[in-house]
Structures are given as C-alpha cells and as structure tokens.
Amino acid sequence: MAQEKKKHHCEVCGREISQEEYDNYDGMCWECWDDQLTEESDSMFGELM
Ligand SMILES: [Zn+2]
To answer: Which residues, 6 or more positions from 6, have their beta carbon under 8 angstroms from its beta carbon?
Structure first.
C-alpha cells in the first residue's frame, strides 16, 4: 500500500482537509459544505412553501 497522502484545502475557508473530506464534500471542509447545504435547502424550502 503506497498511498500518497495529498494535502487538500477547503475551497471556501482554506483550512486543511483530508482526501476523504475533499472527495465527500466537493472540495470543501464539512463545515462549509454543511453551510452550503443549509443555504440550498433553505431556498428550496422557501420555494416549496
Ligand atoms: Zn471550509
């Protein structure tokens, strides 16, 4: 197993994130991802109601 550990940084706040976070959260840390998700669902709910 010669897996290279590449460093990634959150596209939004610039903090260091793991490869896993990078893959799972679209290049963001989970906090920024969560922020975006909340904003998106907020506007979605706004349209629904
Ligand atoms: Zn971030």
So the answer is: 19
